[in-house]
Amino acid sequence: MPVISYIDAVTQALQEEMQRDEKVFVLGEDVGVRGGVFRATDGLYKEFGAERVIDTPLTESAIAGVAIGASVYGMRPVAEMQFADFIMPAYNQIVSEAAKMRYRSNNTWYCPLVIRAPYGGGVHGALYHSQSVEKLFAGVPGLKIVMPSTPYDVKGLLKSAIRDEDPVLFLEHKRCYRLIKGEVPTEDYTVPIGEAEVKREGDDVTVISYGLTLHFALKAAEELEKEGISVHVLDLRTIIPLDKEAILEATVKTGKVLIVHEDNLTGGFGGEVSALISENAFFELDAPIRRLAGPDVPAMPYSPPLEKEFMLNPEKVKTAIRELAEF
Amino acid sequence: MPVISYIDAVTQALQEEMQRDEKVFVLGEDVGVRGGVFRATDGLYKEFGAERVIDTPLTESAIAGVAIGASVYGMRPVAEMQFADFIMPAYNQIVSEAAKMRYRSNNTWYCPLVIRAPYGGGVHGALYHSQSVEKLFAGVPGLKIVMPSTPYDVKGLLKSAIRDEDPVLFLEHKRCYRLIKGEVPTEDYTVPIGEAEVKREGDDVTVISYGLTLHFALKAAEELEKEGISVHVLDLRTIIPLDKEAILEATVKTGKVLIVHEDNLTGGFGGEVSALISENAFFELDAPIRRLAGPDVPAMPYSPPLEKEFMLNPEKVKTAIRELAEF
Amino acid sequence: MGSEESVMETSRHEALGLSDDQVLEMYRTMLLARKIDERMWLLNRAGKIPFVISCQGQEATQVGAAFALDREKDWLCPYYRDLGMMLVFGQTAKDQMLSAFARAEEPNSAGRQMPGHYGDKRFRVISGSSPVTTQLLHAVGVALAGKMEKKDFVSLTSFGEGSSNQGDFHEGLNFAGVHNLPVIFMCENNKYAISVPIEKQLAGGSVAARGQGYGMPGISVDGNDPLEVYEAVRDAAARARKGEGPTLIEATAYRLVPHSSDDDDRTYREMGEVEEARKKDSLVQFKKYLEDVGILSTESGAELEREIGHIVDEATEYAEQAPYPDPSETYTHVYAE
Amino acid sequence: MGSEESVMETSRHEALGLSDDQVLEMYRTMLLARKIDERMWLLNRAGKIPFVISCQGQEATQVGAAFALDREKDWLCPYYRDLGMMLVFGQTAKDQMLSAFARAEEPNSAGRQMPGHYGDKRFRVISGSSPVTTQLLHAVGVALAGKMEKKDFVSLTSFGEGSSNQGDFHEGLNFAGVHNLPVIFMCENNKYAISVPIEKQLAGGSVAARGQGYGMPGISVDGNDPLEVYEAVRDAAARARKGEGPTLIEATAYRLVPHSSDDDDRTYREMGEVEEARKKDSLVQFKKYLEDVGILSTESGAELEREIGHIVDEATEYAEQAPYPDPSETYTHVYAE
Ligand SMILES: Cc1ncc(C[n+]2csc(CCOP(=O)(O)OP(=O)(O)O)c2C)c(N)n1
Ligand SMILES: Cc1ncc(C[n+]2csc(CCOP(=O)(O)OP(=O)(O)O)c2C)c(N)n1
Ligand SMILES: [Mg+2]
Ligand SMILES: [Mg+2]
């Protein structure tokens, strides 16, 4: 199997889906001629032309709203928000419209659309090019939220998202784009939305994560093995709908749970995971459920020492796991 | 002490603060001549004139953005969103601007502004005049979120919000407006932001809630007393910043916790409260932490049987408490 | 505007290519919309339905516009007052009453949404929400899809003059202009947004004047005149189908009743102003026109009123008896099942 | 435009009431902005600073506009390219370099924000963010406050032509129009929004043309000519102070460098086009003007360049040595402490 980068997996999925289905098209700022500011849509303009790879005006609400209209009509738009931080002007369209279209029309109309957005920090992006936004959408029924961590999952899940009958927010950690590489089959495959995956088996402590921090957990697990701590790592992959069974299974496996995400602690999605566990597997727990997350400050600052302070890393994850293991 | 309604407490607080401080002004849709569609600003236009009680165009982003500009200048704007459901077009201004102004300017600029919004259901308001929106803002550091349940708290907290140096989202449960009455002193007083209050003492089960469902909890507690179940009821009043000590104290009091809110279960603020408890008071718990909340559907439907099904009520809360008590 | 020779003898509707039957049908639909609406207020005041939001005063705009479209292929993204438009496109009095009573059989949402929140796949009417102006972008999206698929339909979206100040208006007109899309933006200017009059709402005072800033025609019409609206929309649709892009139309009329059943308009406007507006009521004026050109007589007019009264009665009775949705419906259709 | 008698003898800047010293100061500031900007690119390419976003090509617009304001009382809500404006209002080369190096002493945010995210209480410049066009509404809010407090300052906000399509533009202009506020909306049209050219961005092709839809003057000026910009902003400010309300100004120039240090503009525009634009570079043209009217000589021009070179060197050295903020700063100033 060829080894490709996380961002190439995005591009391949888009390209193959556009080849497979004429209704699939891409729209967003700089996605056409420029191929996207991260180059995620590189080559698509050349292959599919200006009509299917649309450079839109600088208007996120219109990008979302036009995609909604086109998807209701029967197209399969894949909209790009240039940075997840800039999805806010489209919030009304996504929350009030896309997420509620099926419910409010009693299953008559619906929005099979994907909104892709690069999120996350560690790239000198400062306050507004580093944010995690999943918690702002995780409580919006009607929307699905996918947050893959590996090229394999990116490609398989993006294909599933495009083929899905409901609106999917597809969040790509921008630090992973060129950092994370992995094997990806050449033949067509999908990864189902809503299924978590055990990325590493272990017995002492369970880490539940997604995105970039999943890799920190894997790294930490590898290093802790040498200290004799065996870590079980669950990659949520999709946060809505949430794979509750997988979470409970992973909890039972070790009885000690650490939830890790880059998004701020308070109001972050870790709270939901924690609540779910303590509601359903309370008596399986051998220690308090712990969360390790970004601090409760508005966003990640620019200056390197501050950015470093905000970001998680394998060391911080290791420390938290060790504490739980020793509990 | 005079007994007044929840909405009158809003009006009184606004009026008294406008009398006290010339920098305080009100803006929003229909807040002037009409006195607000709920009449929360009734009489203010007459007393303070069109300059301090501004009927704005139908533009929520402008209402928030203009309030931000004016507050940065040094005014004390109190903006009304006609319904919390219509705050979404202002999401970018609130999340990206108001909440981050102080942090991003290293404490140089800040936004002492209040955004009031009627939220919640049970008023035949259907999908878009019934939503709870707190979870959409609870993970936004820099913003404070106040959700009072009684006229006393409304008045005292709204005054605190107006005097606060940071942006405050002030969420008023619209079903409480005329339903909930209570004693309110005539002299000036404030209720501090960030302090929860025990609204009823009890020994068997702790209920943590806010807004309309707090009253359901009190009603349930009253009725359960006859069955010999003693219920401890904590009213969060402010959800950001969260009164962690009060939550942990209330937990320790009974060892059994039920969190109740009208907002949807998944991603709802109850998750944060639950996670906090299981992280910090795990060994004080005698039963799994339970959450009772609105179902995971986009919003409350119009048709009476559906609205009723969505809404919580004292019966549903009673059942949940009883289950916990018997655990 | 009509051929030189026969201007004086030709009636206005003939000059527009409309037959007597067609204008009669327009009037009939306007009247039906009005009567349904009036009945809803009665039902509301009698405590039978929780909420009404009215088309009263805007029937000419709505019916004139919808008549100018192709009811077999064009798409609508209307707003909550567009009862007249919905009737033209195919919904019935029964549909409206079922919706007012929030019954399971109601075609827009099976009772999930408030009345006035239209949506009907049979007639290519996309489901609308309450937050204003969002639908405008959906119409642009449909028009984009149509262009991509080389179809020749147009989409029409309507909205109030207050709502035209929302950011989505700007983003939508700009997007449609850049991509030269077959979409018609129709502002139904009824002079108030709840209590806020145009002077406090709309800088410059004209929605139509904003068209040229997007390089598209911005056309003002008398919203009380269904023929004038018809002509403007017909021409806009023809341009759109020819690939000449979008049009902004502002049809000005007046909201004859309070904003909704929850409103009390005496708190913000003089009742004399409403009385004045009633004199220009399109139902009065258009009726007079039809009488003047000899299409409607006192008798046939009265007969029509009776017939429509029956229809509304029947619809009301049917809807009142119809069952509510089952509570279990609360949980369905969040996602594809 | 100047008095009849002396038009031919009077130089353009004299006709505007500007002294020789003033225009020299304008040129000096433009040049300083350019040189700081150029140095930042070098530092970036040398791996010393992570990011640059440029004013290059827009100096005339920025400096001309800021000169027309009252630096003691007017307010600014600028955007990320407005280095020239910030220098006029009082920031220094050192401030810019501290910001580029993300140092603790940096005045906009103490290193929290990217360079170009201006904010300075000393000069009444409200802190800006990255999401475009949000600052426009803040300027409207400041103007509203000024009107309420019966002050006679104006606020000026600037933004790109791409950004002018955001909903906040529409809502802001409308609000300012309705309330007749003392605010100047200045679009710096540099013909691209990253890779997207005006034709794909801006329906109708003109931002200025949108002014009349809000009942306000919409004025197009040559963004390469600081005197033309100065005049337009001066007049707008005078109108605003007299209570005559807001003005929209579109100053068209060209972005001479890539969008930012992360961009590669060869992927979307011909380098020949950039070369063409360089011929109209305001620094070249305005220098020539000053030479033509005898204010600048070859020698004094060279001396100025040297002096500015020194300033930039010193600023760079200072900033490079200056300390980063302490990591503990990550946690401060979320709320009032
Ligand atoms: C985004 C949003 N804000 C506020 C409201 C509340 N609201 C409903 S209708 C209305 C007035 C609309 O006025 P206009 O656009 O002129 O339409 P009209 O009702 O007059 O036909 C308002 C403020 C809403 N539905 N959506
Ligand atoms: C809301 C938002 N969307 C997207 C971006 C990313 N972005 C930064 S600058 C830019 C282009 C801006 O173009 P224009 O307004 O013409 O200003 P210019 O950079 O050309 O001066 C884009 C798309 C952003 N900053 N904010
Ligand atoms: Mg109106
Ligand atoms: Mg530009």
TrEMBL record, chains A, B:
Keywords: Oxidoreductase, Thiamine pyrophosphate. CDD domains: TPP_PYR_E1-PDHc-beta_like (cd07036). Its cofactor is thiamine diphosphate. It comes from the Bacteria. InterPro entries: THDP-binding, Transketo_C/PFOR_II, Transketolase-like_Pyr-bd, Transketolase_C. It holds the Pfam family Transketolase_C. Coiled coil: none annotated. GO terms for molecular function: oxidoreductase activity. The keyword Oxidoreductase applies. Residues 4-179 form the Transketolase-like pyrimidine-binding domain. NCBIfam families: PRK09212.1 (NF006667). PANTHER family: PYRUVATE DEHYDROGENASE E1 COMPONENT BETA SUBUNIT, PYRUVATE DEHYDROGENASE E1 COMPONENT SUBUNIT BETA. This is Branched-chain alpha-keto acid dehydrogenase E1 component. It comes from Marininema mesophilum.
Automatic annotation (TrEMBL), chains C, D:
It is an enzyme of class 1 (oxidoreductase). It holds the Pfam family E1_dh. GO terms for biological process: branched-chain amino acid catabolic process. Gene3D superfamilies: 3.40.50.970. It catalyses: N(6)-[(R)-lipoyl]-L-lysyl-[protein] + 3-methyl-2-oxobutanoate + H(+) = N(6)-[(R)-S(8)-2-methylpropanoyldihydrolipoyl]-L-lysyl-[protein] + CO2. Keywords: Oxidoreductase, Thiamine pyrophosphate. Its EC number is 1.2.4.4. It comes from the Bacteria. CDD domains: TPP_E1_PDC_ADC_BCADC (cd02000). The branched-chain alpha-keto dehydrogenase complex catalyzes the overall conversion of alpha-keto acids to acyl-CoA and CO(2). It contains multiple copies of three enzymatic components: branched-chain alpha-keto acid decarboxylase (E1), lipoamide acyltransferase (E2) and lipoamide dehydrogenase (E3). This is 2-oxoisovalerate dehydrogenase subunit alpha. It comes from Marininema mesophilum.
